[in-house]
Structures are given as C-alpha cells and as structure tokens.
Design goal:
Layout lengths: L2 E5 L5 H14 L4 E5 L5 E6 L2 H7 L10 E10 L7 H8 L6 E5 L10 H17 L13 E8 L2 E7 L25 H10 L3 H7 L5 E5 L5 H8 L3 E5 L6 H4 L4 E4 L12 E6 L5 H13 L3 E9 L5 H16 L3 E6 L7 E8 L1
Parallel strand pairs: 5-6, 8-9, 8-11, 9-10, 11-12
Antiparallel strand pairs: 1-3, 1-4, 2-3, 4-7, 6-7, 12-14, 13-14
Helix pairs in contact: 5-7, 9-10
Keywords: Cytoplasm, Methyltransferase, rRNA processing, S-adenosyl-L-methionine, Transferase
EC number: 2.1.1.186
Subcellular location: Cytoplasm
Length: about 350
C-alpha cells in the first residue's frame, strides 16, 4: 500500500478527505481518499507515497492531527499471532521508535489496552531482527502500528521533522486549577502546535504587548500573562479577579469586534463567536493596518461544507491582509467546530 494515513477529529473525516484530495491534485499527484464517518482517520492512496509525503507537509495540513506514510494494511490477522504478518509486511528497514496506537474514535478507544500490551510484545521481536534501534533514535523514522480493530492494522512510518511529536497527534495538556475557562487549553495548544520552538522563544518575550478580543472570562488573557505579556483584555463582560490581579492586564469594556489599539501591539488573539468570514475580514484588517505583528484567532465553522468554508475564509484573509504573511491553521484537539489560525510576517 502506498500513500498517507492521517488522524483527525471524529466526525471530520469528510473534511480531511477533501483537503487531502485537493492538495494532492494541486500537486499533480493522482490519489484518492478512503474515509468513513466517525473512524477518526483517513487514508490517502496513491502510486507514489514518497511524493505525497513531500507534497503534503504536516504543518500545512489543517484537519490532520497526525500525518504518517503508509507501509501496509493488514486485515483479518490472527489475534493469536499478530507479530508474524507484521514482521513479514515490514520486510526490512530500520526504525528509531515504535508507537502502537489507535484512532481517537469511540469505536477504537477500547483498543487502547491492546495497543499498549502489543507494543511490549512487538518491540523485542523487532529488535531481535534488527528492525528497531535499542534506544529511541530521532534520526530514524518512527514505526506506527495502528489498530482500527483487533484484527485490522495499518502499518505506517513518520519522520520526526514532519509529523506531530505526540501519540495520536494529541498533546496532553492539563487544565490548571486557576485557569479561568477550558478555552485556555485552546491557546496553550495553539502556541505548542502552530509555533515551532524557535518561534516561541522569539515571539513570546516578557514585556511584549497583546490584545485579547472578546476576552471574558479571561482564559486566553491568562495564558498570555503566563508568558509575561502585557494584555489589553477587550470585552464588555467580567474577567476573573485573579487574572486582573496579575498586574499585567488592562480590562477595556468595549466591543472586541470594533475596538482598535492606540499603538501597534506585538500580538492579537481572538476567540469570539462570530461568522467565520466576518472574523477573517476583521483579522485581516488588524494585520493590514499594522495594529499587531502576530495573531492567533479561531474561525467557527458551519455544520456543512466545512472544508469549502475553511478554504474561502483563509483565501479571504490572505487577500485582504495585502502583505506577505506566514499563515498556519489547524483543527486542534481542544477545538470543536472550529479551526485555529496563526499569522506572522513572512
């Protein structure tokens, strides 16, 4: 089998399938997507898996939590001996790490125990055959064994430089007791997923300035203060008192959709509930007018034609900013019917 295997949020398989198919077509690579609603994954099948892998970088994929390169699909394997057909399908190669996984779906979650125990059985067998390094080696590809059923397995590989560094593509974040709302996890994940290590160090320095549009009750403002940024929290609603007590926050009772800063800011973040096209246009105004240098914002998607709306909104944003920007967008684990966008000068 040749192609890609990507995890996604359960229920968003059609959106990921449409995205993968369109991106492959734009790259001039014939491929077709195999997807079923609520499976939590999509397989993109094509003649040249290596070319698809190169043409569709993980960071540029919006609805894919993880991107893997397919090796084989094994159906109807004997539960008494899963190792033999897997070893035969691998037929050489060498890997730096083994991840035994399952999609993040209701049907596949009961396979978590099997995936964990099978990794403990498969790891020594791989090492005995020289297929797996004795210690984790990030310079070698990672081997993924993905259980979708007890007798149905996908084998795939990933490059640590072009894939999510977390099993299932999900960063495990803990909601701290003083977080004003669960939405804080969205921004924490966005900073982790959409920015690389160098960008986090360069772009999030103590003393930088930011605006949080639609800030109440203060989840995203709280995350920014933990980075020691000074924040204008714009919302007519109340903020949690301990967020104000940081001394880094100015609460401005105004409409976040119409407010603008008196001086340019380093950052603007926005998680307001509004039509995605209106949000895209307003965010473009902020970047075009130079009111901020960097932005992270959410686009709330409709129930239907979500890939079409995503593409339209991102194209609209790029067109109306009228300046060269680096733009990344993802549907994060802590997102729901939305995607999160990061924009910064190119």
């Amino acid at each position: 089998m040749s192609g890609l295997f990507c995890y996604c949020r359960q229920g968003f398989e059609p959106e990921l399938a449409a995205e993968l198919s369109e991106r492959a077509a734009l790259a001039g690579l014939p491929a077709y997507a195999k997807a079923s609603r609520n499976d939590g994954y999509v397989a993109l099948i094509g003649d040249d898996g290596a070319a698809l892998d190169r043409a569709l970088p993980w960071r540029e994929l919006i609805f894919a939590r993880q991107k893997l390169r397919l090796i084989a699909e094994l159906r109807d394997i004997d539960p008494k001996d899963r190792i033999t057909p897997i070893m035969a399908a691998l037929a050489g190669g060498r890997y730096g790490e083994l991840w035994s996984e399952h999609p993040d779906s209701d049907a596949a979650k009961p396979l978590a125990g099997l995936a964990r125990s099978f990794a403990n059985a498969l790891r020594p067998a791989l090492r005995k055959q020289g297929l797996l390094s004795e210690q984790d080696d990030p310079d070698l590809p990672r081997l993924h064994v993905v259980f979708v059923q007890g007798n149905h397995v996908f084998l795939a590989r990933s490059d640590a430089r072009d894939s999510a560094p977390w099993p299932l593509g999900i960063p495990r974040l803990k909601l701290l007791p003083d977080a004003p709302s669960r939405s804080a996890l969205k921004l924490e994940e966005a900073l982790l997923v959409l920015l690389d290590n160098d960008e986090r160090q360069r772009l999030l320095k103590p003393g930088m300035t930011a605006a949080d549009l639609g800030a109440a009750p203060g989840g995203w403002t709280w995350v920014l203060t933990r980075q020691h940024l000074r924040v204008a929290a714009v919302d007519n609603g109340p903020l949690r008192q301990h967020v104000l007590d940081t001394g880094l926050v100015e609460h401005l009772r105004a409409d976040g959709f119409h407010w603008k800063p008196a001086q340019p800011l380093d950052w603007m973040v926005c998680d307001m509930v509004e039509q995605p096209r209106r949000v895209a246009e307003r965010m473009a105004t902020w970047l075009r007018e130079g009111w901020c240098r960097h932005a992270i914002f959410n686009l709330k998607l409709p129930m239907k034609k979500r890939w079409d709306e995503t593409r339209l909104c991102l194209d609209l944003f790029a067109e109306q900013t009228q300046r060269p920007l680096k733009v990344r967008a993802k549907q994060l684990y802590h997102d729901r019917e939305e995607i999160t966008v990061f924009a910064t000068p190119r």
